[in-house]
Write a structure and sequence with these properties.
The protein has one helix at residues 2-26; strands spanning 30-40, 53-64, 70-82, 93-103, 108-119, 122-132, 137-143. It is 17% helix and 53% strand. The protein is rod-shaped. It starts with a helix and ends with a strand.
Length: 144
């Protein structure tokens, strides 16, 4: 019995040394994530068939917490314009945003974008989503 009691102070000292790093690791510090967008046309829309066709882009960034609650934290709508006015990949429309105060292991971002094509009054909506979870930065390519 005395043998076990002799180890008790050593175990208590070890527990005290381990306690602080473990509690600090469980606490998540606010972090920032960078997201870059590139919007470009993926095809050559110079044919006459595309003259009356336009595209509108709507981008939404949502923060999702550990309970699954979604909160919109950034949103942008690019007005509809003719398909041939969108730039090629090399000259893409670019925008960078930084999202601050994310709770590292408990929150992540979802980037949703909707492309709305309009051709002579007929509309087609295409929706896409990208999860930004593990890295500090993300690149989202949106091809029209």
């Amino acid at each position: 019995m005395n043998k076990y009691l002799a180890w008790l102070p050593a175990l208590m000292a070890l527990a005290a040394v381990i306690y602080k790093p473990v509690t600090e690791a469980r606490k998540s510090t606010p972090e920032s994530k960078d997201i870059s967008f590139a919007i470009y046309k993926s095809s050559n829309y110079s044919s006459n068939i595309y003259d009356n066709t336009s595209a509108q882009v709507e981008i939404t960034v949502e923060k999702v917490n550990s309970k699954g609650k979604h909160s919109v934290i950034w949103q942008k709508v690019l007005d509809a314009k003719s398909l041939n006015y969108y730039p090629s990949f090399e000259n893409a429309l670019k925008q960078n945003i930084t999202i601050h105060n994310l709770n590292g292991g408990k929150e992540y971002l979802i980037v949703n974008y909707t492309l709305t094509y309009n051709s002579k009054g007929s509309e087609l909506r295409m929706h896409e989503g990208v999860i930004v979870k593990d890295q500090n930065s993300a690149k989202v390519d949106i091809s029209i």
